[in-house]
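To illustrate this point, what follows is a protein record of this kind.

___
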Amino acid sequence: MSLTWKQSFRNFETYLRLEKSLSDNSVEAYLNDVFKLEKYFVETGNDISPVNVTYSDLKAFLAWYGSNNLNTRTQSRVLSGVRAFFRFLLIEGEIEENPASLIESPKIGFKLPEVLSVIEIDRIIDKIDLSKPEGHRNKAIIETLYSCGLRVSELVNLRLTDLHYGEEFVVVTGKGNKQRLVPIGRKALKEIDIYKQDRNSLSVIKDQNILFLNRRGSRLTRAMIFTIIKDLAAKAGIRKNISPHTFRHSFATHMIEAGADLRAVQEMLGHESILTTEIYTHIDRSFLRDTLIMFHPRA
């Protein structure tokens, strides 16, 4: 009996979790990419097993998917997941040749991340209604995102026991469950302390050790953080494309513009490669020019 899509998804998920030790979010992203491939075959009436997919089938799938998703980054993301899926089938001996090996990635232009100025961050914070029950929580969330440069997944999973007030450090659990120590500013700690008074007054606390909770006492979802920030940015009249990640970009950019060591910023962001961190050196060309004039012996 030929391998079904359902069984191949289960096997692929087990491989990603146990052998590759990927986080829940990464596993979900890979599976979603492959679900799109199965959806294509269903919608086009092509009853084909994963082991019988050909190079031509994948080219047709990418053309079909690209017609509805013009963003080349999104296309590249899906292709990455599909490639990983067929590499897995090859490793498992389900297929003898990888049909995705010759597929070329769409050309992606170099896109710099959106960055907020300190004034814009203050404008967003000023729009928080502190008279509402969630006001101090939302202020603490934004101060923590900007102070520590956290990913949204790292923020929602932050625990009370991760905070070290005396040392002014926070233990952050990043991608692949890797932990790192990140300095946290006194302003962020102060806002967290104020919020904790509201947190302690919740009638029910389901996630006892999770720092940021909703009104039902459970940890916030990633989507909720997006909604909070989008709403505040709109109220502040900021027309940039804002997300929780924007505060991470702003943190890194402001640190490097102020002269922080690139390796230190890499460590704080939890980047595996310094090449990822180097994107922030492209954001302010005038800063780089000033650095050269200041330090280069021939400048």
